[in-house]
TrEMBL record:
It comes from Daubentonia madagascariensis (Aye-aye). It is a single-pass membrane protein. Belongs to the cytochrome P450 family. This is 7-alpha-hydroxycholest-4-en-3-one 12-alpha-hydroxylase. Substrate binds at K109, N286. Its cofactor is heme. GO terms for cellular component: endoplasmic reticulum membrane. Its main location: endoplasmic reticulum. Keywords: Endoplasmic reticulum, Heme, Iron, Lipid biosynthesis, Lipid metabolism, Membrane, Metal-binding, Transmembrane, Transmembrane helix. SUPFAM superfamilies: Cytochrome P450. Heme binds at C440.
Amino acid sequence: MVLWSLVLGALLVVIVGYVCLPGILRQRRPQEPPLDKGTVPWLGHAIAFRRNTFEFLKCMWTKHGDVFTVQLGGQYFTFVMDPLSFGPILKDAKRKLDFSQYARGLVLKVFGYRAINGNNQMIHSASTKHLMGNGLEDLNKVMLDSLSLIMLGPKGRSLDASCWREDGLFHFCYDILFKAGYLSLFGYTKDKEQDLLQAEELFTQFRKFDLLFPRFVYSLLGPREWLEVGRLQHLFYKMLSVKHNQEKDGISNWICYMLRFLREQGAAPDMQDKFNFVMLWASQGNTGPTSFWALFFLLKHPEAMRAVREEATQVLGKARLEAGQSFPFQLSALQCTPVLDSVMEETLRLRAAPALFRVVHEDYILKMASGKEYRLRHGDIVGLFPYLSVHMDPDIHPEPTAFKYNRFLNPNGTRKVDFHKAGKKIHHYTMPWGSGVSICPGRFLALSEIKLFVLLMVTYFDIELVDPDTPMPPVDPQRWGFGTIQPTHDVRFRYRLQPTE
Ligand code: HEM
């Protein structure tokens, strides 16, 4: 017994030593950024980082300056906080900083999808063909039909539609955007009523997964939550399976293109199902929350709401929606809305907070705009968190926490693109979509669908907060780094279709 305890104890010491020793031994070498390993072996600062990425990085930035390396769960991350120095990291012509290695690990862990070679290029070429230009125009039509179906029902406007209804604004926006986005991209069957029910069920399950997602990524789930995540993953594989797809019409060209590519590369059907889950997540996880913030900011800023409504009347004319009708909407109007465009940019500046990562493939010299050079080690990860270093920089965006609907408008009403830092024009003045090789390929579709939804809401509906003095809900600190952040709680609002005279 004593012998066994000794053997086990020794084994434990060897394992802990093996895992922690590289961290304990690691020292800052000449020309490397300041190194902060934290006090806990191996874990380093992982707990503080995961609890609140924004506050943690703010604190490290104050302590170490524009570049620093921190230990997070046995891995070393170098954060670069000076946006004037982002260019070489994002362009990285010599391909020493790799996005796909990091992304591959993440999608395998979270969605069970083992990325094939050329995955990233395949997604981006499918998106250039089908989520931009003519492909986007076709999808906008489908999206308008989907929004009409979901917001008005299969028979168009009903007679009792003008009575007030109450809901949580976050739930309302996420539910509608999710269902419209899902049906438009993943297709319909012949039975629309059944499709709506299936989309509703999918959204209920999606929200369960969504709530567990940040802690799942960081491996912080309890045993029951692990089981729940496993159940949800299998449910999504089934509900999105390519076998089911065969019964559908109108699957978007975007999805069809990518699935065809996977088949041609010999990906097994179960991998294709998992790929669909990744695409559902990427395409639906941010649009609903962003629409919520856009509408909420408008409801809290009447001057912004007036300006958007005025613009909507100018481009769409006086709106009327008769019984049995679906929305009569000129999609070309989406190209003529500088005020709403500015509202969208401002909403994303305030609420989109992705963290961008690149794995250092070979030892790398990071050249800062100041002329200073840092040596980065092979195997470490470079991280950018533009929300803190760009979106909230008062030099680039005065009063950065305030919502200013016309921040991105020139005095003559055109789009403002001139922003400065330390007297220099800055290229990356907001980065809600990431940048470089990993820039969101769905950004044009995302903007179109959110704008379409907001325009429908302000044009055809009366909307108001149940309590006009309701304060801004706090943001959930676990969401920093994962795209659009979410509120900790919902906000009650009421809405009705404007009565016909
Ligand atoms: C407001 C809505 C959206 C936001 C804020 C957003 C933001 C982002 C961000 C920050 C990334 C990752 C960048 C990185 O890791 O460097 C990303 C990736 C991605 N997004 Fe979006 N996105 C939105 C909507 C959409 C939509 C509607 C689609 C598709 C229809 C989409 C498809 C994708 C895909 C496929 C990727 C992965 C790209 C890759 O692996 O290279 N996104 N998005």
